[in-house]
Amino acid sequence: MPLRRVLVSVFDKTGIDRLGRALAGAGVEVLSTGGTARALAAQGLVVRDVSAVTGFPEILDGRVKTLHPRIFAGLLCRADRADDLSTLAEHGIGTIDAVVVNLYPFSSVASRPDCRAEEAIELIDIGGPSLVRAAAKNHGFTAVITDPEQYDDLLAALAAGSTTLVQRRLWAARAFERTAAYDTQIASWMATHAGLVAPAAPAAAPAGPDDEAPLPARLSLELERRLPLRYGENPHQAATLFAPVGTRAGLAGLRQLHGKELSYNNLLDLDAATRLAGLVPAAAAVIIKHTNPCGAATAATVAGALEEALAADPVSAYGSILAVNRPFDDEAARVLTKPGLFVEAIAAPAFSPGALTLLSTVPSWKASVRLVEVPSGDPWEATAGLELRSIAGGLLAQRPDDRCDDPAAWRVATRSAPPAALTPLLDFAFTIVRRLSSNAIAVCRGVAGSPAAGATLIGAGVGQTARVDAVRLALAKAGPRARGAVLASDAFFPFADSIEPIAAAGIAAIIQPGGSKRDPEVIAAAEAAGIPMVFSSHRHFRH
Fold first, then answer.
1. What's the predicted TM-score (pTM) here?
2. What is the Cα–Cα distance from 33 to 542, expressed in whole angstroms?
3. Structural domain includes residue 232
4. Are residues 286 and 418 in the same domain?
């Protein structure tokens, strides 16, 4: 199809000078409006205003300008239909061979914290998507360009004197992708604006289902392949990382500074590590193996937390993934360069230049370790505040369990309360256990025996089908260190049988959600053993 008459209306003026010169050189009649018309005219191009074609001025502050039969009939005319051509001739309407349109930047403006609803609504483009969809629908005869990166192909077509059906079909596919993405951005914003997406709950008060707005009835996502992976969980499984278009928070926005390419399993473990580290307010280090913490600690410095976390279970820590919630500094890097260690990947908000140099040059595994910077921000914003998980044929959606519990809301279930000095340690243990696979038990103690100096995980029981087995596993991992430590359970104790091994290990206090019909039996067993027990009232299963 020849290019004789083109409509140009772009918000992003990138490359408009080059495009204008090419259109002028090819003798193409150009229709345009507003700022685009002025930009093209500055290139010496004679531009015909859309109002001169429609016979109607722009109205409603520019909300209505191209929405007119003289424009859309010209875009939608089927050139191989005599009746279409006759209708255009009857009404004195000329065909439009191509549109060059890009849309108002809705998402980049609407996502700003200071963006008012009225401002966002005015950025919902109506005429632009309508022009794009009309031209894309009629791609058998009309070309549609939606991105300055496509200008080179359009200029080549101008030089050749026409566009091909293959070109127009490809441009149409890209155009529909663009309008679909645009509508998805608007739908996501409107869901929040209309109250279909619940606002974030206060950090220290997890909201229950009754406190939240309902989950959206429909969720539209545009995903792009963000990171190619060698394979999935096993070498015979193909895999890649998809992320919502435009999302750069969390692992979707990671920046790898060094090391081999990331694997599918690396990303699962990095997700577990960074999410747990992000729940801890103090300087913390988390060591993950198969998505479960095998070490986690807080201390005055990242280096101190890292040493404590590595000491919790040195055997499991070999070949692990670790994350910290502060910049990874030189002192922390020196901890990892000690002999006998091997780490697959390290995630941090940032790495000091010295740490980057040490980790990429000193240890024997320097070529293997992946160093990953993870940006801050809400990683759930692009998914309407929902954590998504695939099942065969569908997606499960829930609010993320990423808000810490408030110790002020706990209830002491036994007659004796834990010493006040143990409250930070119980809080730490209950934070850690929520990121262990259920049934889960965490045993934690103070650094150097003092909770004031920090806290560390010393034993974890994960993924057990019986809670008493999870208790025994966690206590076996902790060994003699369990004496004077605290124990956290992600859900209630269904029977009193767990209290006997807990008492034998010398545990100083227990925290659990409570809620079992046998709570009185469990409380009585704890009373008999002289162990204070606290009920949090919030369960934290992680399957």
1. 0.73
2. 56
3. no
4. no
- Distance between CA atoms of residues 155 and 452, nearest Å: 69
Q: 3-state class of 480 per DSSP?
A: helix
From 68, 137, 193, 260, the catalytic residue: 137
Q: Which domain holds residue 154?
A: 5-193
Does residue 543 lie in a domain region? no
Give residue 274's pLDDT: 95
Its sign, for the CA torsion 103, 107, 110, 113, is negative
Q: Active-site residue 236, yes or no?
A: no
What is d(CA 105, CA 100) in angstroms, rounded to the nearest whole number?
16
CATH, residue 334: 3.40.140.20
Where a domain ends, among 193, 215, 231? 193
**Integer Cα distance of 293 and 291 in angstroms:** 7
Question: pLDDT (tens digit, 9 = 90+) per residue, 338-379?
Answer: 888 999 999 999 999 999 999 999 999 999 999 999 998 888
Phi, psi of 8 (to 5 degrees): -120, 125
388: tokens are 């998504």
Task: Return the beta strands (E) in 312-375 as ranges.
Answer: 320-324, 343-348, 370-373
Encoded tokens for 436 = 């262990």
On whether both 40 and 164 belong to a single domain, the answer is yes
370-373 and 255-258 as β-strands: parallel, antiparallel, unpaired?
Answer: antiparallel
Number of domains in the chain: 3
Residue after which a domain boundary falls, among 193, 209, 224: 193
As a whole number, mean pLDDT of residues 515-539 equals: 95
137 catalytically annotated: yes
pLDDT confidence tier of residue 118, bands split at 50, 70 and 90: confident
One of 13, 68, 193, 290 is an active-site residue; which one?
Answer: 290
Residue 503: Cβ within 10 Å count? 16
